[in-house]
Amino acid sequence: MYRNSEWSPAEQPHMEHIAEWYSLWSRWVNRGKRRIPQHWPLHARVLMNSEELRVWHWMINTFDDHHVLVKMPVTRFTRPNANENSLYWYEMLQNTTCTFSVCASDGHVVGCVDVPKSFGLSRKARNLKSNLLAQCGICYVVLNPSMLPDQDALRNEFLGEEATKNRHLKREEAMLETARLSLKNTLAQQRQIRTILDQEHTSSMPNHWHDSFLIQSNTRPAELR
Fold first, then answer.
1. Which SS3 state, helix, strand or coil, does residue 48 take?
2. Cβ–Cβ < 8 Å for 19, 110
3. CB proximity list for 163: less than 8 A, separation 6 or greater
4. CA pair distance 66, 61, nearest whole angstrom
5. For residue 72, which phi and psi values (nearest 5 degrees)?
6. Residues 68 and 102: beta-carbon distance below 8 Å
7. How far is the C-alpha of 169 from the C-alpha of 172, rounded, in Å?
8. Is 95 exposed, middle or buried (0-12, 13-18, 19+ CB in 10 A)?
9. 3-state DSSP call for residue 58?
10. How far apart are CA 79 and CA 124, in angstroms?
11. How far, in Å, are 115, 116, 122, 129, 131 from residue 119 at the CA level?
12. How far apart are alpha carbons 146 and 51 in whole angstroms?
């Protein structure tokens, strides 16, 4: 008698065929799982909730001379140092994101903002991002959608007071330029209207003015006697 874990010489070839068939079947199943589907089991969703959307519009108005990026991983604007442990910690941060990132025109991120969910933001996550970004020279703040700070105060923290002053100067220059162009257009329109009125007045006048005293009479001149 053979134990259950052993096979008789007559049964062994059959079991080898079964094992080979099972191996091929497993490969076929796994290959089917890795095959790109014709219909993806996914659907679109909104990128931000209502509170995040409101803060985003506020951020766009506050940093109108920058780009406000949405939910960027911190690994997109940081990189590991040249040591053996940095790559490990860098990979650990793959899923760490900030709600908004303020990016300058040269592609550098100058500050990040988090908008907490309804359940809040843990102190551990807040301290991690604050310390990490501070070491990279990037500002980090957490905003309450119902109590947004002064716009200039946030700009000063992210860009410095000099940048805020330059922004006000540029806005004043833009307003003056807009007023100058508006006045120029108004004067041009008035000049055009005056020209049209003058032309209409000229065309309404008779072509020839005749003095009644100069009109010759049809009668013959009287003869002298």
1. coil
2. no
3. 155
4. 10
5. -90, 135
6. yes
7. 5
8. exposed
9. helix
10. 22
11. 11, 7, 9, 18, 22
12. 9
CB 157 within 8 A of CB 138: no
Residue 48 has phi, psi (to 5 degrees) of -135, 150
Q: Give the length of the chain.
A: 225
Residue linked to tokens 């059959």 = 14
Token pair belonging to 211 = 């003095």
Query: How large is the average pLDDT for residues 96-106?
Result: 95
Given a cut of 80, whether residue 170 has pLDDT beyond it is no
Cα–Cα distance for residue pair 64/155, rounded to 1 Å: 11
User: pTM higher than 0.70 for the full model?
Assistant: no
Say if residue 113's pLDDT is above 80. yes
Average pLDDT, the chain: 80
Alpha-carbon distance of 197 to 68, in angstroms, equals 53
